[in-house]
Amino acid sequence: MKINLDTSVVKTREQRLGTIIGWKTGKTSELSRDSAYTCAGCKGNGGKRLCEAIGPFTQGSSCSERMVECQAGEVRDAILIQHSPIGCGTSQIACNSIYRNGLANRKLPVENMKVINTNIKETDMVFGALKKLEQSIRDAWDRHHPKAIFIATSCATGIIGEDVDSVAGKLQEEFKIPIIPLYCEGFRSKHWSTGFDAAQHGILRQIVRKNPGKKQEDLVNVISLWGSDVFSPMLAELGLRVNYVMDLAKVSDLEQLSEAAATTSFCHTLSSYLAAGLEEKFGVPEVKAPQPYGIAGTDAWIRELARVTHREEKAEVYIEKEHKRIAPRLEQLRKLLKGKKGYAATGSAYSHGLIAVLKELGIQVDGSLVFHHDPIYDNNGPGKDSLKFLVDNYGDVNNFSVSNRQQYQFCILLKNIKPDFILIRHAGLASLASRMGIPAAPLGNEHHAVGYQGILNLGETILGILAHKKFHEDLAAHIKLPYTKWWLSQKDPYVLDTTKRKKSVL
User: Among the four residues 77, 110, 375, 497, which has the most C-beta atoms within 10 Å?
Assistant: First the structure.
């Protein structure tokens, strides 16, 4: 894939990767197989694409602008301007809480996010709002003197065609700092993960040092969110330092992305675009390896990172040491969790990693829900196929589903599988599981299950939530779910899928 930094607009995941947000429940091996070719009847887009299940309505989701807010808005010495109606700013409350907790976890000074909303109104939709945008940029400079200013577009600005680039270009020349348009209108893409790419595209275009000096041979870019610092001690075993990006980074951390020895991440979904861009445009190799989850994945990840950075001997010493260290407690956890059934409901590649850890713990995994599926990743390679790696190393998951955070479908999936607990990243779905008598572990710290220690971490967490199972069962006994008897009697959560009906009409 060629990344075009001459334009400020990033291609959506549908265009680049063939992303889908609906796939009827089946085996992981079937989804992996069907991701490997373009099926008849789908429009070719230069990538690999699956036919997706399409429902008649959407009950709940997120949007690309929200992802830009939690990425660009959490660069510590920068400012994010949301060029949008004030309603788009309501998520600042949740993002700020996450930001403060993330800073505390990393032992960084705790502060609030710095986000300005231009408050587009009805009259602005008629006459334009570029004057508001310019004033907001000037206010950001006068109040904070940031090292960079990001501008997140919105559905409103996309509808009226605001020329954000012209204002950004003019004031960038005046203030001598990067002022970066990020085109992330909610309707631009059907899945919010395109927002990650929009933020990363802006970083590649306008912040990363174009002509880096001497390479820092011991520096590794780790693309992450706001999780605790688990990568520093792991990489220190190989004599490497971590450059965390984008969340909680400073602009100087982003500038030196092009000077690193390699780029890696905890999740291929999050890192795909930035890692590919750094390799293609700046010669920083991406670690094309399985994600660091479970023993097999972490072994392969450590070895590939060591190969890229020329530290193979240190890697083998570290792997052997960690295997011995975790073995006693891992054996205990396997005995304690024997016979338990788990379920993962998270983003795509992250779920693949969590399932691997569950299976390392000896937990039965009969099902999983992912919010979207990327048949391929940017800068694709066999080592990055996280779904195939899961199937090849840990076997099939029989009831694997793709559903874009649709609670009405999630309800039927859980009813069919009846797991003892679920792992979840987006806590809004956790409450539904609780009302069905199923305890949930909302993984707010996305690094919790990473690496060798992550296997033990997740095992301890599962023991903790299972201790409260009686509470959830009591909750379920006294709560009525907000669905009709007809819907609760269904076995197929995709019974409303319109794809089959469209085909039959044709």
Answer: 375
